[in-house]
Amino acid sequence: xxxxxxxxxxxxxxxxxxxxxxxxxxxxxxxxxxxxxxxxxxxxxxxxxxxxxxxxxxxxxxxxxxxxxxxxxxxxxxxxxxxxxxxxxxxxxxxxxxxxxxxxxxxxxxxxxxxxxxxxxxxxxxxxxxxxxxxxxxxxxxxxxxxxxxxxxxxxxxxxxxxxxxxxxxxxxxxxxxxxxxxxxxxxxxxxxxxxxxxxxxxxxxxxxxxxxxxxxxx
Length: 219
Prior knowledge:
Blueprint: E1 7-10, E2 21-27, H1 34-41, E3 49-53, E4 57-59, E5 62-64, E6 68-70, E7 73-74, H2 76-96, E8 99-109, H3 111-123, E9 129-133, H4 139-144, E10 154-160, H5 168-179, E11 185-190, H6 198-211
Keywords: Hydrolase
Pfam families: Abhydrolase_2
Family: Belongs to the AB hydrolase superfamily. AB hydrolase 2 family.
């Protein structure tokens, strides 16, 4: 099978061929690419398989997974296709690489965060957890998609207090939505605009390690 998306993969340097590894799939923001996301999760590279998924649609010097009618208003057909193809890609990668299917994580920023939250709701416990950085859940996903339980899914949601793209109230709304659905929710605000602060990065890296059950000794 040829995957729908181009992607970048980083395998642990000292891989045990008899072992399966946790995986982080990264989903970038609108107009960005998979390489820009790797820096956020590079400290995990010895212990996780890291797969950066590139959006299939060109946008300037970068890419996107779907286009918009207006800010916060995805073109429905394109969004539906992205959600379907990303789920298929996750299964494709799990078959191809030594991925532990019980430890699959999504980490997305902005457009990638929107898709990460959507996939948590459509895949349920097929995912171990998601990290959603400055995103939201579209209303049509909440009301029209076939949703699965996320009670066993770990969810880390963060948002910039001064986000000029998606106001901070959207972060609060996303957290409230998931708080009703899972006890495994972490929600944090950071004093940033539409971006990822260093403190935010350190927090979600530690969260991912702990959630995956890793005890990492610093050398």
